[in-house]
Structure formats: structure tokens, C-alpha cells
Amino acid sequence: xxxxxxxxxxxxxxxxxxxxxxxxxxxxxxxxxxxxxxxxxxxxxxxxxxxxxxxxxxxxxxxxxxxxxxxxxxxxxxxxxxxxxxxxxxxxxxxxxxxxxxxxxxxxxxxxxxxxxxxxxxxxxxxxxxxxxxxxxxxxxxxxxxxxxxxxxxxxxxxxxxxxxxxxxxxxxxxxxxxxxxxxxxxxxxxxxxxxxxxxxxxxxxxxxxxxxxxxxxxxxxxxxxxxxxxxxxxxxxxxxxxxxxxxxxxxxxxxxxxxxxxxxxxxxxxxxxxxxxxxxxxxxxxxxxxxxxxxxxxxxxxxxxxxxxxxxxxxxxxxxxxxxxxxxxxxxxxxxxxxxxxxxxxxxxxxxxxxxxxxxxxxxxxxxxxxxxxxxxxxxxxxxxxxxxxxxxxxxxxxxxxxxxxxxxxxxxxxxxxxxxxxxxxxxxxxxxxxxxxxxxxxxxxxxxxxxxxxxxxxxxxxxxxxxxxxxxxxxxxxxxxxxxxxxxxxxxxxxxxxxxxxxxxxxxxxxxxxxxxxxxxxxxxxxxxxxxxxxxxxxxxxxxxxxxxxxxxxxxxxxxxxxxxxxxxxxxxxxxxxxxxxxxxxxxxxxxxxxxxxxxxxxxxxxxxxxxxxxxxxxxxxxxxxxxxxxxxxxxxxxxxxxxxxxxxxxxxxxxxxxxxxxxxxxxxxxxxxxxxxxxxxxxxxxxxxxxxxxxxxxxxxxxxxxxxxxxxxxxxxxxxxxxxxxxxxxxxxxxxxxxxxxxxxxxxxxxxxxxxxxxxxxxxxxxxxxxxxxxxxxxxxxxxxxxxxxxxxxxxxxxxxxxxxxxxxxxxxxxxxxxxxxxxxxxxxxxxxxxxxxxxxxxxxxxxxxxxxxxxxxxxxxxxxxxxxxxxxxxxxxxxxxxxxxxxxxxxxx
Amino acid sequence: xxxxxxxxxxxxxxxxxxxxxxxxxxxxxxxxxxxxxxxxxxxxxxxxxxxxxxxxxxxxxxxxxxxxxxxxxxxxxxxxxxxxxxxxxxxxxxxxxxxxxxxxxxxxxxxxxxxxxx
Lengths: 897, 118
Description:
The complex is a heterodimer. By secondary structure, chain A is of the alpha+beta class. Chain A has 27 helices and 23 strands. The longest helix of chain A has 38 residues, at 417-454.
């Protein structure tokens, strides 16, 4: 109700005057009635009313939103002051924008990867199941695995019948769903095919998640029946981008990997599947796998095989059931299941342990890899923000000191101290507000850069500057404004009035202790950030220096999946052979090979258990990854053959079975068993070991010693294969040549993911590159801010001490000694900061150990580098102020004082 | 007639008391500032000398709280004047404050003249 008064102030003011005037007239009339003359009557009325202006003033204060007016005045005043010193304002707003923007970007990234709740009903009730075992390779199957914080390898997959048993027998969950991401499928619609992504889901998926389809219906149990017609539900994003949101799509038939399926619905808007970063284009009923949607997958029968681990499982907790209760309940069935498996899997005496975790934010197979790095980035960007605040506090302190005269005058003529503090705080809050505004584009740019540079293109991560981030920006700006404004405001208004009025600020020679303390703190924080960045740079350096056991340079890889286009049996083998021949015949190609395993690119692998007859009845068993390769593989990758030979054209489909093993696997068999027989523990098939090769970085750089057995593709064909080509040609030109060569064989079969081997292997460095890159950016930012802060303080100190320096010079101090004095002061401050920062940085380094590679928490390179950088800043930033000090003209300085 | 032996009290010494007096004055019906000031003076037999200037901020404070509302009207002498009237909330306030004031007055009297009360 008071708004009107506030907004229409002039009118309101006139009305109040009119009201008082009405009183005066009434009173004067009454006075006249008592016999006074007109003038007397008027004067008496005025006396009765009292001081008219004062009354108006008091009416005004009775207004409840008078503070708005004061605020408006403070804001206008602050804006005028900031406009008057554009240099200061620009530096302040820019550094705030960088500080806040950096924080927002990290927050947005973290939010997108791990904090955004799934857009399903009651996401807080969702849990995911995983398991871990020391020798998890014991179980056959294809699953995604990742390392958790304790360094355990977590496997996410279960046999489909296990899921079925849980569905029937559990007391903890109100529902369960199984799903299986399909990383590439062909979707053929309206006359052309496109590569896409899919997810196989159980019949319970839609209902358990409580998803309301955007169009048509979701998948149900009925769609999983053996005789049900094949159907699909489209993902909302795919429907929008590929179909333009056209409603007529429901009822259409499309082909998924050549299997005709009818579209029955479009999934809920905003739902992008359960797995973070993997947005399915189509959702397919699990049963399609037995109708041949994935051609290579028919054997074993996936839906009924009790020992094949391949689906991921999520569940919804019943009310009042805790995660641990649910886990314990499900483990009963799980334990029995594992024990009932064929003996060879349980042989190891190391049964898998069931794990359960919240899936409120989605099934996150990156999460564990991202959680700690994100936390660290958040901490570092928080530190940088703090440095920004300290920096600005120091600048504001210096400004306030320069304004002491003005403030003293204002205090002297009756401004209250709270009013002055309010005014100064308003200034810092205005700065913070401008900084927050400017930080939004900074954050958007930073996010774009992070996404483009650091996140693999196949991952669908959408960090957005949404409401949460905006709130964070406002919160950060407020905090920054208070932190950087309170100290200067409080101090500046504490000046003894007389002294400041006397114009003393300039001639005071006392030390600027508060400013120095802030600077020392800033240097300590800065050291922390730079040393942290150094540790990650060293880690990246060490990782890149690891001997990968292979030569990734000049190798280009791509993938083909010819069975999707109808090839099978001998036609398939001869198709791949023709492609290989064409590749080898290309000019500039020195070697080409075919494989189902590309080093470094994969976290999914199939495993086998192999046995070696070691005399009499003793038998050694080992579980190993397997790779199927064509002749020329070790040559193309330059992997050393340590003993025996590599495959050659003589290892044909009908020839004697052969195998090559790597050094780690050979070690499990206690030696190089060249010429001996190995047995596949599942099929019982025997094969001769013809060679042993060096270990190579298949499983990421950190873990080279994984066992691998190589089979010739001729004897164990693979449906989808990678081709690897070694050539000195530039990648772009080579890519074109490869496409032409493949098209000459069959233009219908698409090539997937053409990339250099180095790119493929980068996946295993990704998080390290991310950390090293981002922390270095933050470190650089911290250093820049430290330099600005130091420069500001030293320049201010020199200005303050101009007279003192003038006296020194007049008394015979040399220019050099003045220069040295200023530089020494700067070095002393930085030195104290470094001494305080070093133990902090060391402790921080210890907390980072799990992310470092062959770097100790107190790495001398990282720490020494950080100290050197700061020393350079100490000298560099103080140099100009020092020069100015050295050039002080004693006469001018003394006269001015 | 003013009672010379009792020096007039400054009503604005007692914040809140003035509020109560204004509410009481407005209870019979709307009135403008000049009337209110004089009514308070008369009814207190001029012991309570409202400083007329201080009346206006009080009126605005009450209006800001929503206890009274205002409108422009024409005075008995045919002049344009700002009238104030009680709102329902103001009426409630009047009831509350009156009873509280009476309790207070009784309590103070009891302390000052115990012999009469007992």
C-alpha cells in the first residue's frame, strides 16, 4: 500500500502540504472567530502546528518503505563514484566476473553430471544395484565397470533371470526395472538410415519409473511376450530432432538394425534415460534381443541364461526401507544365485558382493570418476573466489583510505556511522552485483569450453545456467559484497575525526597492517591453488610419459558392423577381408589390421577363463580379457612380440587352434608356455600358444598389467570389428581415403567413429586432462589476481609513503636502496604467505593422492614451481611501484607534504 | 477552561498513547486532522496538549499500519480537508489497546493509592 506513495513522490508530497495547509486554514479561521486579525490568526495557527518541514519529514519517516528511498540514494551515489573511477570499476567487475563465472561453470558441470534429479516420480526412492569381486573376470558377460573411490572395480551388470528372481522375491522394493544401453544401432526410417543409440528395457521400466509418455503409450510387460509384435518408444529429444515433433509418428514402422518395429509412443519430455550422459533415441523391449535386434547377440539366449551378466538393474525402495536393508534383502537371492552358478565361476572362492546405491540422480557410471575431481574443482574455484574477495577488499580499503577526508567531513556534519557503513557496503554490493551480471556470459563461455575440450563428444551432458546456478550467482555476489565491503567499511568509519579532517591520510606513516594481513592470506591461498594445479600437471605429464607398450602415433581406427547390413557367415568374413585388402593397398598405408579390441578406448570387455595343464593332474587357471585380431595387428600397433610368433595367413579357420597371450597372462601361467596347450574352461576347446607379446595400455594408462589372450579372427569371427591403419598421411586426408576404400567394397555399410588412435586413447586421460586443464586455468587466474592485488597494495603503500621516501632520499638514501626497500617489502609479504601456504598445500595434496599418478603430495616440482611463480609475481608486481618510489623527487615530496 | 494548577502534559511523550487517543477520537466517525487535535485537547480538559504538528506523523503511521484509512473531503467550513476513519483492523486495535490501557491505569492507581483500593 505504501508503494504508491513511494512511486508518485512529488504528488504525495503536494498532498501532504495540502493537508497541513488545510489545518492552518481551519485553525486560522477559528482564531479569527476568536477575534484575531488575519495575520495574527495565521501566525498563531503556524505556531500551533510547529515546524512544518519537520512535520513533513516525520510523516515521511512514518512511511514503512522509507528505506527504499535511502537505498535508492545510496545506489545513485555508489554508481556515481564507480563511474568516476572506471579503471578501478573495470578491474573489480572483471575479477568478480571471472571468480563468480568460474564457480558457476564448475557448479553447472557438477550439477549436470551428478546432482540433477531424474525427472521421474519420486526419484529419491530409486536405487541401483552393482557388485564387486576381486576376480570379477570370473563371470562371463558384457558389462560396464568403473572404479569407485576405494579403488574397487564395480560391475554394473546382472543376468536377466537374476533380475526376474528379484522381481518375484523381494521385500524391500516396490518395483524393479532392468535396462541395457545399446551404444550404436542403425535406425532406418523414411528411406534412410542413421546411426543412433538405444536402450533395451524390461516391461516394468515405464511403470516403475512412473513416466508419462508424451505421446501414445509406454512399454509394458505385454510387449515382452514371445509372440508380441516388436514395438519401440521414441526418446523425446530424438522425436524432436529427427521427427520435428510430428504426432503422426505413432503407428509408423521403423527399422532398428533391420528389424521392423512399430512406434507406439514418445517418451516423457525431459527424460533422457537412466544413465547420465547417455540419451537413448529409442526404447526397445528386452525381448527384441531374442528377435535378433542385435545380430551378434543371439548366443547365448540372453533372457534365460543364468550365467550371462549383461543387464543393469534399478529398483524403487518401499516406504521406510533403507538402502542397506534393501541391499541385505536382495543379497539373499543374489548369494544363492552366485553359488548355484557352474562351479568354474565360483572356483575362485571369491564370491561377488552385492552393492546398492542411490539412483536419484540417475545411474552414473561416471559419477565416481567425477565426484572427487568435481569436489576439488569446486574447492579450488571457491578459493579463487576468496582471493578475488580479498583482492577487492584490499582495493576498497585503499580507496576508503583515500576517501578518509570525505568520510570525516560527513561524520562531522552529522552522518551516523551506520549510515556511512551502509553507504560503503552499498558500493561493494553494487560492484558485486555488476560482477554477478558479467559472470553469466563468462560462465556460459567457460561451460562451453569445458564441454568442447574435455567431455567426449559421444556423451550427452547438458550443463545449463538454470535457476540453481542463478541463485548461486546471487548468493556468491552477496557473500562477495559483504566479505569485501565489511572490513573496509568498518575500518574507514572508525577514523578519529579531527585527525582525518586535518588531511592526515596522506602523511600517515604507520603501516597498513590490515592490507598486509589480507595480502599474506591471499598469497597463501594462491600458493594452495597453484601447487594443486602443479600436482595435476605433473600427473598428466607422468601419464603421458608412460610407456604404453604400443605406438599410437600415425594409427587411425574406425569401426564397422556389417551384420547390421545383412552380412553373415562366410559373406561376412569375406567382406571384412576385402575391406582389409583395400586398406592395405592404399598408397601411404604401411600396415592395416582388424580387431575387436582397440587399446584404451574401452571399458567394456568380454572375459574368458583359460586353463593350462601343468603336468599330471595339476591345472593352472587364469581369467583373462580376450581380443580377436587379424594378422599384422602387432605390427600395426608396434606391440613387441616377446616370444614365439604373431598370427599369419596360415592360421586359417580350419587350421589348428592357436592363441597369443600377453606377458601378464603368461605370468599367471608361470612362464612363457609357447608351444603348450591352453584350454577354454567353458567350451573345453584346446589351443596352442604360438606367441607371447608385451603388455599394452588396453585398460587405461594407469593399469597396464591386465591379462589378454589374442585369438585369430579367422578362427573366432566377430560381428563388429575395428580396423586400424598405420599411415603417415594427415588424418583428414587419410579419413577420406579410408571412406573411399570402404565405399568401393560396399557403400551401404557405415563406418563408425573414425578417429586417430591417440584420440581413442585419450579417453583414459580424459579426467586427467580435465583436471590439469581446469586447475591450471584456476591457478593462472589466482596468480593474475595475486599480481593485481600485490601491485595495488605496493602502489598504494608507495603513494602513502611518498613523503617518508622523500625524506630518505633527501638524507642520502640511494635510488637503488629505495628500490630494494620496496621490493624487499613485497618479497617479505609473499614469503610469509608462502610459508603459511606450504603446509596447507601439502595437506591438500594428501587429500588428492587418489587422483595423482606417481606424484607425491609434496612434489618438489609442483611446489617449487608454485613458489617460483609467486616470487616472480612478488618482484614483477612490485617493480613499477618500486621504480616510482626510486624516482620520487625529494623536493616535490617534501613541499607537497 | 485550562486548569492552571496542572501543567499540560506533552502527549507525544507517551508514544502509543497518542495512537490510542486518535483511535478513540475516530470511533464515532471520520474526522480531519484539525478536528482530531482539538477533540483530544477538549476531552482531556486541555491537560493533554497535543502538539498539533506531531499528530500528522502519527496519523500516517497508523494509516501505514492499516488501522485507519484516509480520503479527501470537505470540512464544516467548506474547505478541502483530509479525513481519516477507522478500519475494521483499527477497531480491533482500539478494543485491545483500550483494555490494556485500563489494566495499566488500574495497576498504577493501585500502587499510588493503596489505601483507597484496599
